[in-house]
Amino acid sequence: MKVIITDNYQESCRIAAEMIRDVIAEKPNAKLGLATGGTPVPIYKNLIKMNQQGEVDFASVHTVNLDEYIGLEGSHPQSYRYFMDTNLFDHININKANTYVAKGTGNPADNAAELEQKVFENGVPDLQLLGIGNNGHIAFNEAGNHLVAVSHIETLTESTIEANARFFDKKEDVPTTSITMGMRGILAAKMPLLVATGASKAEAIRGLLTNDEITTQNPSTFLKLHPQATVIIDKELAQLAGVQ
After folding, report:
1. C-alpha angle with apex 161: 225 to 177, nearest 5 degrees?
2. 218 secondary structure, DSSP code
3. CA separation for the pair 162, 197 (Å, rounded)
4. What confidence tens digit (pLDDT) does each residue in 168-186 have?
5. Which alpha helices (H) appear in the chain, and where do they start and end?
6. pLDDT tens-digit map of 16-48
7. Residue 206 contacts by C-beta under 8 Å, 6 or more apart in sequence?
8. Which of 129, 144, 150, 191 is most buried (most C-beta within 10 Å)?
């Protein structure tokens, strides 16, 4: 596993955006696995700027997202389809027909099966962008006694609901279930790229980077199985997590 420690979160996001840019430069029709939440927003802002300045061309790029809340239409302001449109897709020259975010409405089992198909359709993602939850979850693969290999319906833990409540008017509005890519799909990517910042992530990052253990109680630790996995953290988080 490659670990990059930066001076600050802004530098982390710039480096992550440059890595995505370089993947597309090498393969103009690259397939990207994308993430939502607070962590990737500055990364997407960097990519938008790069696109506007002619540094990166998304015209032939395909994308697939990690997850979506069950019960939210794509037009809902807190849906991940809406997030991706407003934070990235609306501002770059990508063909939205080549972007995929799982459906939040309709039959959840069918929607999960469709996500699984899209992960592997025409090849696996060349790069999979990841954040990490306070409990070590990646996508919505929650910490617990087991993990699920394939895309599936996940019941969100109380800590995840609390963490995501900041995006809603009140905690009660946060959906309690989601469709998420499973661990097989995440680890199938040619290069998983995890970016993290903040004291709340220190325990999870400590488990990921300071020992060789793999545990379902910290799903991010399964990235240790991937030879091309890359983790970018800032020096403040590195110090809190005990990462040298």
Report:
1. 75
2. B
3. 18
4. 887 887 888 999 999 999 9
5. 9-26, 41-52, 80-87, 108-120, 158-164, 183-188, 202-209, 235-241
6. 999 999 999 999 999 999 999 889 999 999 999
7. 241, 242, 243
8. 129
Helix (H, G, I), strand (E, B) or coil at 202: helix
Residue 144, Cβ density class (10 Å: 0-12 exposed, 13-18 middle, ≥19 buried): middle
Amino acid at 40: P
Residue 127 in tokens: 């790069």
Cβ density class 29-61: b for 16+ within 10 Å, e for less: ebbbbbbbbebbebbbbbbbebbeeeebbbeeb
Dig out the tokens for 59 from the structure.
């015209």
Q: Which one-letter DSSP state was computed for residue 69?
A: E
Question: What are the tokens at 10?
Answer: 């802004």
Cβ neighbours of residue 43 closer than 8 Å, sequence gap 6 or more: 13, 16, 17, 20, 129, 195
Rounded to an integer, what distance in angstroms lies between the CA atom of residue 211 and that of residue 4? 17
| Residues with catalytic function | 67, 135, 137, 142
What CA–CA distance (Å, rounded) separates 123 from 135?
Answer: 30
Tally of helices (H runs) and strands (E runs) in the chain: 8, 10
pLDDT digits (tens, 9 = 90+) for 200-214: 999 999 999 999 999
Angle, CA 54 vertex, CA 52 and CA 59 arms, to 5°: 85
- Joined tokens for residue 231: 């983790």
- Find residue 155's DSSP bridge partners: 177
Using one digit for the tens of pLDDT, what is the confidence trace for 98-132?
Answer: 999 999 999 999 999 999 999 999 999 999 999 99
What residues are paired with 129 via a beta bridge? 193
β-bridge mates for residue 67, sequence order: 180
Give the integer Cα–Cα distance in Å for 244 and 22: 27
